[in-house]
Amino acid sequence: MSDSLLITALCASLLRSVIVCSIAGLLLPLFSGWIQRSGTRAARMTRELLCVLPFFTPDLLTGFHYRLTASAWAGISGGISYVLLTELLYGILQLFRAVALGMLLRHIIPAPTDSSEALYSWQLLRSRIPRLRWYREWCRLQLAGPWRNPLLTWSLTAVVIFQEFETAALMQIDQHPWSWSVCLFDAHAAWQPLSASLQLAAQGLLVELLLLLPGLVAAGCSRNSREPQPDTRGSSVITAAGPTVTAVLLVSLSMTLLILTPLVTSAQPALRGIRFITADPVTVQRTCVSLATSVACSVAAAVCALGIASRMNFEHGWRSGLHHAITAALLLPGLAGPLILSLGLQSLFQLPLLRPVWDTWLPQLLGQTLWLLPRAFAAAQLLWTAERGESLHAAALLLHAPDSRRRWFAAVLLWRLQDLPLMMALLLLTQWAFWDVTTASLLHPLTFEPVVTRLYNEMHFARTDALLGLSAVAVAAPAACLACGAAALLLKRLHRARLQSARTQKNPGP
């Protein structure tokens, strides 16, 4: 692949990412205001779920659904009309994903402690301090206060949109929509030398660092505590922002484009495809083996990533410069994206010392774990809060209550407060790892074909019932496995409560 082609794709991807995420940043107050105007807690949670749900839809399935649309436009209009329509559709899909991710980040990024009072006090000192020093400190206070969370949200969202691969790869007809990740992946799959791919990937990494720069500057200027909590200061400002009707229309359009339309149009063919797959024993055996192996590797990566992220989140006692350096070193490879990360691991496992383990599950497991670490770190921020710890401690004390009904209630409460959120976090991480095409394609063992790579390859050629059925089974398999795990944890909690009741009856207190 020529450098000029990659530079063109890089510029187009960068421009799209900047435009999409800037528009998303303007829409976030509108969505937040709509959520704040909820009358009840249930309505608030429902609106929050509707806002963030589009981010969790697999990009591969979204691209597969709209591939026919892009192909039809290419056949009907062609030329510049097709280019504009395809770029517009892809941009709208990424816009709603960016808004969903932005809403999710608003709940994860802690609120800054530098408030408007500090800015007001600094305004009073304007006439007493040299102008250059005053403006320098004013910028620092803005970056550490009002600008901090918007810049962090914009940077992280822009990097994610810039890295997007699966939807662009399946929608792409005649190189549109432009995507640097698709150009680089296709060139590497066409036996481009690894050294050349790494040189081209370095250019993409440089662009990602530029996109991260505003957020890193804002984070560096901030002195806030790391206790995760919603940005309530910002939400009080945005309560009156934007009409409700506009927010409802945008949320409805987002749900329709990314979830409802693919689900409704694919449900009946998928059921026919499942019946077709189950009618052939050879296909059933092949599918079960591939699914079981892929799910097992994804679950292992999710468990490793969440375990490491939880450990980083729990280490309150030694949060020094060394701790921040180790955290950054663990999170930055995942922030680079699965394509750059996988190419880097490919080169690493070609070294003589690591080459014997290349054709094993270790490269794919390591790649998926590193890619999941930033997302697992965000999940850990929501899981292990001080408020949740106090509730868990109170529920654990109820396990020793003399009344058996209270002990059973405590067991169910512990499951709801600890086990169920943990399994939900593992489910999301597992789904992300499972549907990551680039890591599975570049790092899987040579003797095994993951389900997602098989789907990705076949989705380029036809939209068959069997393919839709396999996609539906692939979506349900991780959820079914982790649902069984959640049920097993509940039974374990109840069994412990029953044993505690039996011990209490044998040894009654005085």
List the helices and strands and how they pair.
Elements: H1 3-36, H2 41-52, H3 59-76, H4 79-108, H5 116-124, H6 131-144, H7 148-163, H8 166-171, H9 180-189, H10 194-221, H11 232-238, H12 244-278, H13 281-314, H14 321-335, H15 338-348, H16 362-383, H17 386-398, H18 404-434, H19 437-443, H20 451-458, H21 465-506
Helix pairs in contact: 1-2, 1-4, 1-7, 1-9, 1-10, 1-12, 3-4, 4-7, 5-6, 6-10, 7-10, 9-10, 10-15, 12-21, 13-16, 13-18, 13-21, 14-16, 15-16, 15-19, 16-18, 16-19, 17-18, 18-21, 20-21
Protein model, in words:
- Helix 1 packs parallel to helix 10 (194-221), helix 9 runs antiparallel to helix 10 and helix 13 (281-314) packs across helix 21.
- The protein is mostly helical and 510 residues long.
- The protein has helices spanning 3-36, 41-52, 59-76, 79-108, 116-124, 131-144, 148-163, 166-171, 180-189, 194-221, 232-238, 244-278, 281-314, 321-335, 338-348, 362-383, 386-398, 404-434, 437-443, 451-458, 465-506.
Helical content class: over 70%
Low-confidence stretches: 224-242
Described by strand count, sense and barrel closure, the largest sheet is: none
Order of helices and strands: HHHHHHHHHHHHHHHHHHHHH
Instruction: Give the structural class.
Output: mainly alpha
Number of strands: 0
| Tally of individual helices | 21
Q: How much of the polypeptide forms β-strand, as a percent range? A: under 5%
- Basic shape: globular
For this structure, the quaternary state is single chain
Give the N-to-C terminal Cα separation: 82 Å
Average pLDDT: 85
Radius of gyration: 25 Å
Protein name: ABC transmembrane type-1 domain-containing protein
Transmembrane segments: 6-28, 72-96, 240-264, 284-309, 321-345, 413-435, 466-491
Keywords: Membrane, Transmembrane, Transmembrane helix
